[in-house]
């Protein structure tokens, strides 16, 4: 048998790696599936596990609903619904938007997607203290 060269021994062979990212459930809408892929792709492959799938479904549905409600609020503020909605209806629309925003925030925090969820009090204090220090290249 022929002896292998040093170059062939030094090279690392790469095996095809199976991506373990969660795929969006079929029950989601097209927009919700887009959101799912964006969110899952933004984190390491092992970030979301099967046990977090229900939370992720709720999160993308909450974001999708918030987008729909926000579009209606934008239309209201642009005058599209002029004289169509009374103050009570406007208040309900703003309350719905706020409720959905809080739901999105809650899901994001529970899945540790927000900066708040990744910091302890001590590390947040250290990070903010470091933020105020001028770097040598900034002088």
Q: What labels describe this entry?
A:
6 helices; extended; 139 residues; single chain; 58% helix; mainly alpha
Plain-language structure description:
The protein has 139 residues and is mainly α. The protein has a domain at 50-115. The chain is built from 6 helices and no strands. It has helices spanning 6-10, 30-41, 53-77, 87-110, 115-118, 121-131. The protein is extended and about 85 Å long. The chain starts with 5 loop residues before the first helix and ends in an 8-residue tail after the last helix.
* Counted beta strands: 0
Going by helix content, strand content and strand pairing, the class is mainly alpha
Proportion of helical residues: 55-70%
Q: What string gives the helices and strands in order?
A: HHHHHH
Strand content: under 5%
Distance between the termini: 63 Å
Oligomer: single chain
In DSSP terms (H or I, runs of 4 or more residues), the helix count works out at: 6
Q: Sheet bearing the most strands, described?
A: none
Question: Which spans have pLDDT < 50 for at least 5 consecutive residues?
Answer: 12-17
Radius of gyration: 24 Å
Shape designation: extended
Query: What is the overall pLDDT average?
Result: 83
SSE blueprint and pairings:
Blueprint lengths: L5 H5 L19 H12 L11 H25 L9 H24 L4 H4 L2 H11 L8
Helix pairs in contact: 2-3, 3-4
């Amino acid at each position: 048998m022929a002896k292998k060269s040093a170059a062939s021994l030094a090279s690392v062979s790469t095996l095809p790696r199976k991506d373990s990212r969660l795929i969006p459930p079929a029950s989601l809408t097209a927009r919700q599936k887009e959101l799912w892929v964006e969110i899952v792709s933004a984190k390491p492959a092992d970030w979301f596990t099967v046990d977090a799938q229900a939370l992720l479904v709720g999160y993308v549905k909450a974001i999708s609903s918030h987008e729909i409600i926000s579009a209606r609020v934008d239309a209201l503020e642009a005058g599209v619904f002029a004289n169509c909605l009374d103050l009570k209806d406007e208040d309900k629309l703003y309350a719905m938007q706020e409720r959905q925003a809080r739901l999105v925030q809650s899901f994001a925090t529970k899945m540790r997607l927000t900066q708040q969820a990744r910091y302890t009090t001590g590390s947040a204090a250290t990070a903010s203290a470091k933020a105020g220090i001028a770097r040598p290249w900034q002088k």
